[in-house]
Amino acid sequence: MRAIIATDLSEASLLTAETLASCDPGTFEHVTLLHVVELDPATTGGGIPQVLEFADEQLAEHAGRLNRQGISADYRLDRGDAVEMVVAAAEELEVGLIAVTDRGYGRALGRVLGSTAEKVALATTLPVLVERVEEREAAWCRISAGPTFARPLVAVDLDDALQSLVRSAAALPGAGAARVVHVATGAHDLEHAYGFIADELTAAGLEDTEVVVLENGDVAGALLEEAAASDATCIVIAPRRHGVLDRLFLGSIASSLLARTTLPVVFV
């Protein structure tokens, strides 16, 4: 599998390389570092060449470091809209995963990176990994240790996207047995959840997948509690659904999870 690491060139944003390196050797045949320069020539004037030159130097240095660590890597420097450029590069390079972190140059930019990940996930069928990082003793590091995809918790709704969501989780590199979790929001939902999920998993050939149905008004909170209880290594969720109300509802849940969990989040 090939992967793209979308980076703002900060130390924090490059830690997804450690995530990919934690997978079994040979899982990722190649990694491309991608930095998108979003500049308006009307406001930056003659500074664009210098910005591009600096970015090129930084990318070359970081790619070289990854190669010395045994990770086959190159880099790509694009100009334009970040979401469009990331999706275009992923399609052109035929990658299987897009990876970012939730932090960059400052907390405000970190929130922007997380938002960009959600937008990228909406524009592509590829899984988008948001790795959680923190600063410890003046150095950035991953919050979670070990293989990211070993025990995925898959947060599902009762809709036609359930099969593809669970299949995507099962196809993550080095993925272990997934735990499918639905948080019911009412008695009718709770009554029909197990049957619907079981039928969908059987149709997908994944009938042995463990299923948990919870009843809780705080959907994100319930998912986080279940992730902690089951020792999940990541949370897999769709950033949006199809209808207007669903997009607002599930979008808020995905965003809430990203803000509250210390686990990596995979948008699919």
Q: What is the CATH homology-level superfamily of the largest domain? A: HUPs
Going across the biggest sheet, name each strand in turn. 3-2-1-4-5-12-11-8-9-10
In whole angstroms, the N-to-C terminal distance is: 17 Å
Number of helices: 9
Helix content: 40-55%
State the total count of DSSP E strands.
Answer: 12
Shape: elongated
Average pLDDT taken over every residue: 82
Radius of gyration: 19 Å
Q: Which segments are poorly predicted (pLDDT under 50) over 5 or more consecutive residues?
A: 105-113, 241-249
Fill in the CATH topology of the largest domain: Rossmann fold
**SSE-based structural type:** alpha/beta
CATH class of the largest domain: Alpha Beta
CATH architecture descriptor text of the largest domain: 3-Layer(aba) Sandwich
**What's the main sheet like?**
10 strands, mixed
- % residues in beta strands: 15-25%
Return the domain count.
2
Order of helices and strands: EHEHHEHEHEEEEHEHEHEHE
Please give a quick description of this structure.
Helix content is about 45%, strand content about 20%.
Please give a structural write-up.
The chain has 268 residues and is an alpha/beta fold. The protein folds into two domains: 2-142, HUPs (Rossmann fold); 152-267, Rossmann fold (3-Layer(aba) Sandwich), CATH 3.40.50. Helices cover 43% and strands 22% of the residues. The chain contains nine helices and twelve strands. It has helices spanning 16-21, 41-44, 48-68, 82-93, 107-123, 162-170, 187-203, 219-229, 244-260, and strands at 2-6, 30-37, 73-79, 97-101, 128-131, 133-136, 139-142, 152-155, 179-184, 210-215, 234-237, 265-267. Strands 3-2-1-4-5-12-11-8-9-10 form a ten-stranded mixed β-sheet, with helices on both faces. The chain has a two-stranded antiparallel sheet with strand order 6-7. Mean pLDDT is 82; it is low at 105-113 and 241-249.
